[in-house]
Design a protein that fits this description.
The chain is globular. It is mainly beta and 454 residues long. The longest helix is centred in the C-terminal third of the chain and has 9 residues. The strands form seven sheets. A seven-stranded antiparallel sheet has the order 21-14-11-16-9-8-29. Strands 7-26-25-28-23-22 form a six-stranded antiparallel sheet, with no helix packed on it. A four-stranded antiparallel sheet has the order 3-20-5-4, with no helix packed on it. A hairpin with a 2-residue loop joins strand 12 and strand 13.
Amino acid sequence: MKIDLQILQKSKKCFPVHHVYMSGFGNEHVSEDPRCPGALPEGQNNPQVCPYGLYAEQLSGSAFTCPRPTNKRSWLYRILPSVCHKPFKPLEEGHLTHNWDEVEPDPNQLRWKPFEIPKAPQKKLDFVSGLHTLCGAGELRGRNGIAIHIYVCNTSMLDRCLYNSDGDFLIVPQQGKLLITTEFGKMLVEPNEICVIQQGMRFSVDVFGETRGYILEVYGAHFELPDLGPIGANGLANPRDFLVPVAWYEDRQVPGGYTVISKYQGKLFAAQQDFSPFNVVAWHGNYTPYKYHLEKFMVINAVAFDHADPSIFTVLTAKSTRPGVALADFVIFPPRWGVANNTFRPPYYHRNCMSEFMGLIKGHYEAKEEGFQPGGGSLHSMMTPHGPDADCFEKASKVKLEPERVAEGTMAFMFESSLSLAVTKWGLQTSNCLDKNYYKCWEPLKSHFNPKCK
């Protein structure tokens, strides 16, 4: 069934039609640009002649034979097919890598100061040239692994687009909004929102000044909503709050050449064509880009005693082949009520069989109010101990326990993975953002042990 534009869910601000969205996670969506009504074929996917003389092209996000619940594909009806381009050639740009052996392993607690955004007059960087790989693990050709990237940019992509042949990008803006044009339509993504651009989808990013954020890349799996178990039918990130763009196209010739960039086996390649790739007049399917506002998350927390495990704050998960074990989870720490009695309420001290990368979009993280800054990050590797700093411990151990708002005005997040992450040379050295004094935040911790006082 086709969807009337009048019933599409709009974002909070009054945007033109290309910022109108359809709602629902993983739904079978149908969309056509209102300039070409009836562009979608009736009753079939690839008729002998498509309406308006369009080409039919399928984008597959899963094997043809995957079970229906995990089978992902969309049909795109476009002015010219995406195969119309010159040969790809290597592109030496940005600081992407999937070489996890370029420096020696480092098991220490690691923290980064805010990653610097170059000034535009000094060095112009768009989304692609401003990509930097911080850490990761796994193997691209074997389709099992993740990478964590930082993007810093100050200019829009001009007649350039990117697609990721290796996996999915989960993008977390921290500073500056992103206007993302995709083959499926446009999305405006602001700090405190996230978006996912799935494998193979072409996109271009416009920015509006100095811009920074984080990317979780997974290869070998797609992001899903976590199972709710005894929570019930509702809670955490609700499916209806995920937004999908509506069809929008441009029939634009680019005589000087349009550059299509492919991230393939960890390297960038560029091909030229003489038209815009955003020429999809209509589409239908369940394999789409999407965005989500983190304020929509329905928070669940302990209401009697003890600090619940952070898995209750999982927004999206990419499953591994082992039941119950994630290749990667995207977890947030949103504003909420803390009411647990007789409880040390901040995060507990911890050694984990998972790797934990944390970032901060805004505010102050409750366990480390100093030093952990928006636009920076931290990595606590597999079995590396971590937890509240000394100031947090002393304060939380003595405070009078009353119902209180936690993390008001703050949004921290975690990329958690079952893989042991290797940090790149850029992360440890070239970025010049590593906080070499991080370990000192635990040095003031002192023993309170008294064998005569229980």
